[in-house]
Amino acid sequence: MNAQDLNDYLAEVFPEATGYTVEAAGGDDLRARLSVGDRHLRPGGTVSGPTMFELADFAMYAAVLSRIGRVPLAVTTSANIDFMRKPAAGRDLLASVRMLKLGRVLAVGDVMIRSDGSDAIVARASLTYAIPPDARENGGLA
Amino acid sequence: MNAQDLNDYLAEVFPEATGYTVEAAGGDDLRARLSVGDRHLRPGGTVSGPTMFELADFAMYAAVLSRIGRVPLAVTTSANIDFMRKPAAGRDLLASVRMLKLGRVLAVGDVMIRSDGSDAIVARASLTYAIPPDARENGGLA
Amino acid sequence: MNAQDLNDYLAEVFPEATGYTVEAAGGDDLRARLSVGDRHLRPGGTVSGPTMFELADFAMYAAVLSRIGRVPLAVTTSANIDFMRKPAAGRDLLASVRMLKLGRVLAVGDVMIRSDGSDAIVARASLTYAIPPDARENGGLA
Amino acid sequence: MNAQDLNDYLAEVFPEATGYTVEAAGGDDLRARLSVGDRHLRPGGTVSGPTMFELADFAMYAAVLSRIGRVPLAVTTSANIDFMRKPAAGRDLLASVRMLKLGRVLAVGDVMIRSDGSDAIVARASLTYAIPPDARENGGLA
How far apart (Å, rounded) are the C-alpha atoms in residues D126 and B14? Predict the structure, then answer.
């Protein structure tokens, strides 16, 4: 699935996840953007930790879909996230996924999050998704 | 700070974090509840992973506050979470924190999340918070 | 498998892992001991981080075996470990495993490590093991 | 410190850590090699998980030293590792560190491990080191 297909599909299955967009998808990499709004902020104007977690989870899920197609039942089994810097105020967040493994049962990827316009890594996450057997039996693994 | 003080303070500093309540605080342990609402659900009615992350983060933050008092600047530096079972549909989630370390610089705790009415662990998280120097200099560490 | 069976089996398949012993196994819990020797120490006499990782991994593997029998191909897929205190000098380390999930594909457990004679947690680990399909097909899951 | 200085220093403070060598150090990156020997292997000839953990820990420690100089008391506070593929038999392992944050209190880095001669990532780790106050007060932070 390309970026447009992913956004259409994700808007359909996650109607509540507003503000997240896939910007580029291809090969082992994917980039997503969070258009930061008030609901993502802590007092003081910083994007909250749970929002960054959600961005990382969204981006990794999109990366899995981009590789194996529409698999609504893929689920996060574990995640590790380090918060390293405050995001820049008033800036969108960008998440870059690097898929490290796409096996029959588990997908593992790294996500780097930074503020738009800056190279400094704000947060780093690694996530593991379990891929349901149906996806594999149906030839979903492209 | 006891449970009531914590809820008053958290409602003030996190007005957007609705649905989360500290139920019991004391010693090395703390229990929090998420009153599950539509905004916490994925299609299908399951509480989303980011919501469980937010619950774990909320509970750990409350546990730190319960020990060192009002420290608005304590921040999560890292978190690890394993998602093990689907939460029961239509049930609140309960989070139990066990504080493992409360040092001068870092606080480390474990959080077990389960559905109300069940003993099965739905998710397990460990979180590390950095405690700002001011909290220590001001004698905040009780 | 009980503690004696586990030790016999582990000595056979991991002849190089000397110093590690299962002390008690039953239900969802297991306790292992590391008889600390020079090869486990950093200069200064502290048990090294990699040694504590090895102890946690050994204990979790033993806990999986205690539940599903001899499964040489179960492998660690991910681990998270927090080091919180220096171990006491000249003391063995004890690891307590709590099995949180034992599914068809993944086993997840928590391990708490402390110095013999102390209740303070020295390190906390969570580990995920992948269970090979054969173990399940052969009815290994007791 | 450059690669030669690091190896001299590490051999002095970790005489038991044989087989590990820093190959290149500079900027935000560092590469280390494990010359695989029998003591690193599981039955079947695969490098063990604890050995890969030790390699990641060694490489990250070297990367911290390369930036702040001789700081014997820097300690690992947390680590997360995903094991994704079996290492190739009979091959050395290479670890590449990317330093993501080098703050006054904490250093955070990512380590990718692969078999020599292959691009596939065998294991991925993220590690956090606590930097002792002395290192900072002495102007150690270059």
Answer: 30
